[in-house]
Amino acid sequence: MPALPTERLILRKITMDDRDAVFAWARDPEVSRYGSWDAHRTPHDTEIFIESCLKQYDREGLGPWVIQLRETGAVIGTCGFGYVDRLDRRGGIGYFLSRSEWGRGYATEAARAVLRFGFGPLALNRIEARCMPLNTASERVMQKVGMKFEGLLRQDMFKNGAFHDVKLYARIAEDSEAPL
Length: 180
What we know:
- With 180 residues, the chain is an alpha+beta fold.
- It has a domain at 4-127: 3-Layer(aba) Sandwich (Aminopeptidase).
- The protein is built from five helices and eight strands.
- It has an eight-stranded mixed sheet, with helices on both faces.
- Helix 1 packs across helix 3.
């Protein structure tokens, strides 16, 4: 799993050395509000997350990258594949950023890098992303990277004791409206 450099970011494998930086943003309930995971309560929760990423790297050869600012080296989030189906040549991506970094275009920049990798070296044909309907910022990222709305998945996610609808977006390799 290679590092993915962009103009302002470096996407790289997560390590246990990233625990404190990841915990700093993963404990914020606003960051996990629309995600399938709950805010981390303790640094141990973050260690469990990192261990799961390391196992995914070993098992599948890829997983979430941490998003690191080139200028400062600060770890501000994650972006990457939640799953890859190599037989059908499709995958699903997700991204989370520290609230202090919202609105700066970092999620879009990171998602573009992951899509380039997915359509390039991984030779995927389809890459999906999902968001809850109220998560308009995430939906806007999907639109900016050329993903198209494909439908509403009714009650697709169970979180906080309730079922939630999820919007499905996807981009296929032949889409060229939004360059990567």
